[in-house]
Amino acid sequence: MSNIVSALNNKAYADGIAEVREIGLQGMITLRGDLASSAVKSAATSVTGVKMPAPGHANSDGQHGICWMSPDELLVLCPYDAVADTLEKMGKSLAKAHALYVDVSDARAVFELSGPHAREVLAKLVPVDLSPAAFTSGMFRRSRMAQIPAAFWLHAPDSFRIVTFRSNAQYAFDLLKVAAQPGSEVGYFKG
Amino acid sequence: MLILTCPCCGVTGEETEFHAGGEAHLKRFGPGSSEDQFEEYLFMRENPKGVHFERWRHVNGCGKWFHAARNTVTLEVYGTYAAQTHEPPADLRDKITEKVPGWTWREFQ
Ligand SMILES: [Zn+2]
Known about the structure:
CATH architecture of chain B: 2-Layer Sandwich
Shape of chain A: globular
Distance between the termini of chain B: 26 Å
Radius of gyration of chain B: 15 Å
Largest interface: A-B, 13 and 13 residues
CATH topology of the largest domain in chain A: Gyrase A, domain 2
CATH superfamily of chain B: Folate-binding superfamily
Oligomer: heterodimer
Number of strands of chain B: 6
Helix content of chain A: 10-25%
Distance between the termini of chain A: 53 Å
CATH class of the largest domain in chain A: Alpha Beta
Shape of chain B: globular
Low-confidence stretches of chain A: none
Number of helices of chain B: 2
Mean pLDDT of chain B: 95
Largest sheet of chain B: 4 strands, antiparallel
Strand content of chain A: 25-35%
Low-confidence stretches of chain B: none
Structural class of chain A: alpha+beta
CATH topology of chain B: Folate-binding fold
Helix content of chain B: 10-25%
Bound molecules: zinc ion
């Protein structure tokens, strides 16, 4: 049996103004369908134990969660080992619904960017207002991080989870590392 | 730099989160059309100095297509609206008229 590893195998950088860490294997399932349909909603909520997020938001609890990706798309988070079971359960909920659900865990990479300067490190890279007043806990945003697509939310205070394509993982890591280099504090978000 | 609001997901973002998709409200002519119609559809485009209507895609966001009305001189964005329409909505046209009296663009005014 092959040894399954994430894109960067938990690579971390802790010498800068914020800590950057590839979190390793994370189960991710793309669910597309009519988000107003109760079958689609319950397919996502029953397997994660979190509530359906409002548009532009994410609800997460540890390795479980639901991220609102677009008006007809959710990203369902679950432990990596539980993906097959989760897909099977979702299949039962969606038997009569027009919906698509597919495992994308190995096609993505997930990073954690944490520390008191996490906001300003990310703000250097994305065209999004990340001031504490504008980007609050629970919000989920798909945008770009320098030259690559990226989606992110505040998993905990001062701690972002960032999802990129797996093929962009090294670029994303290097980018975050440069943005977090020692001495690069901006201090813009300090009241 | 343009600031666009995606009518599909509600996100307001700057230009680089989106991708321009060319002129809006083109009518497709295919098999059975005249050569002039086909040429018009394929090659002939507006190049206005002022009010313009375009298709845009929220490429680094929700991925959806939509329409935008903007001014090519001032770069003001008058508004965005759904992709599933053949013409700019009346309220948006009125809003543009308030700012640019007498504007015309193809058959619209
Ligand atoms: Zn959008």
